[in-house]
Amino acid sequence: MQLSELRTSWLPKVEKEVKDNILAFWLQHTLDHKNGGFLGEIRSDLTPVEDAEKSLVLNTRILWTFSSAYRIFNDPAYLEAARRAYAYLTAHFTDPEHGGLFWSVNAKGEPAQTKKQVYGQAFAIYAYSEYYRAAADPDALEQAVQLFHLLEKHSFDPVHLGYVEALSRSWEDTDDVSLSGKDLNEKKSMNTHLHVMEAYTNLYRVYPNEELGRQLKALIEVTLNHIVDEESAHFLLFFDEAWHSKSDHVSYGHDIEGSWLLVEAAEVLGDAEVLEKVTSTALRMAEATYREGIDEDGGLWNEADSKGNLLDPDKDWWPQAESVVGFFNAYQLTGEDKYLAASLASWTFIEKYMVDRQHGEWYWGVTRGRVPIVEQSKVSAWKCPYHNGRACFEIIERMKHIH
To answer: What would the 3-class secondary structure string for 6-75 be?
Structure first.
């Protein structure tokens, strides 16, 4: 398919999906009119969970999504939603005593889980820098820079490099470092490093500071040297402080997401030598996912063991979104049609099975038999508009710049 055809056939579908389904859903259903900000949880039948905690991940991702939407589409409704998210984060999540942001607050906006999860701080940097890109609010940039310095002071490991997973409210060592019930309680993880890199990349766009550039480069190198498995080109997932791997599971969604985020980081950094190394690794990652992770229906599996045996027969929403971008990125880098076909197949799978035509937005996932998983909430600590919204934004932006 020619790119001119894609612009007329695919691009309007992507724009319609993100504006009329994803963003419209979040504007219509998720505002918390009683307590301010956004509701912490909404079930798949649109029933709000009144007393649900509000997570840092959800709220920073809402801020990032609507900031990005406003930057791309210039619709004042998106800026208003971004301002609402920013105001709520600043008023309720920011720790006035120790700096940084709480992991969650209760429905009324009072501190609930107060530990400093580095993954969450990273998403605040990502969101604040995007809000600054969209709204040019100097306070947002200042907060992002402060968070960068806090992570460097408290989380950066000067001996082995990289960042520890979590610290206590007052930035002391803690034994409780795992991100969620699914994650190992280890000192370092792929997931946190991927998103600190993503955050530093976005901050570096608007704050090309020498120290930040140095740390972004170090993060890219840590990813290449320790997190990407040299043999399989999959991400290793969990580590001790000295980068000894603690898991042999494969996460296809993270692999394909990481493949394009690595390239983005190297491009924003602007170091030709780093970009060359990264591109080679990213393409190996995309190829491994292409070979091993795609089902015959075009959807991406969640996880496998080191031998390729599926650990999870479901297909969650976010790996599908990331495969649209990751394979399109591989196509841009190589010109190989198979990657474009994989990206389009992911999109077709999403349209057929992921989009909730009754209630809006996307299902959490589908079973192996492609039955929607409605037991999982439509909005929750982890079910946010970021993966699917961003996939649409990326395709729209990339199509603009391809000739």
So the answer is: HHHHCHHHHHHHHHHHHHHHHHHHCECCCCCCECCCECCCCCECCCCCEEHHHHHHHHHHHHHHHHHHCC
pLDDT tens digits, one per residue of 211-223: 999 999 999 999 9
Measured between alpha carbons, how far is 33 from 50 in angstroms, rounded to an integer?
A: 12
Could you say which architecture CATH assigns to the domain 3-401?
Answer: Alpha/alpha barrel (1.50)
Global pTM reads 0.97
Q: Phi and psi (nearest 5°) for 15?
A: -60, -45
Go through the chain and tell me how many residues it has.
403
What whole-number distance in Å separates Cα of residue 8 and Cα of residue 20?
Answer: 18
- Residue pointed to by tokens 């971008």: 325
Q: Which residues contact 257 (CB under 8 A, 6 or more apart)?
A: 194, 319, 322, 325, 326
**Does residue 5 register a pLDDT over 90?**
no
CB 199 within 8 A of CB 265: no
pLDDT digits (tens, 9 = 90+) for 302-344: 999 999 999 999 999 999 999 999 999 999 999 999 999 999 9
* Element (DSSP H or E) covering residue 46: none
SS3 content of the chain, % helix, strand, coil (to 5): 55, 10, 35
- Nearest-10 Cα torsion for 237, 335, 291, 321: 60
Q: Rounded distance, CA 165 to CA 195, Å?
A: 12
What gap in Å lies between CA 70 and CA 273, rounded to an integer? 34
For the record, the structure tokens of 45 come out as: 């039948």
What is the Cα–Cα distance from 110 to 36, expressed in whole angstroms?
12
- As a whole number of angstroms, the distance between CA 378 and CA 363 comes to 7
Quick one: which of 93, 89, 100, 220 has its CA closest to 148?
Answer: 100
Nearest to 146 by CA among 93, 101, 198, 205: 101
User: Which residue intervals of 136-189 are DSSP H helices?
Assistant: 138-154
8 A C-beta contact, residue 227 and residue 208: no
Nearest CA to 226 among 173, 182, 265, 190? 190
The Cα 239–Cα 185 span in angstroms is: 10
Instruction: Report the run of H or E that residue 341 belongs to, with start and end.
Output: helix 337-349
For residues 194 and 257, the answer to whether their CB atoms sit within 8 Å is yes
Chain centroid to Cα 135, Å, comes to 21
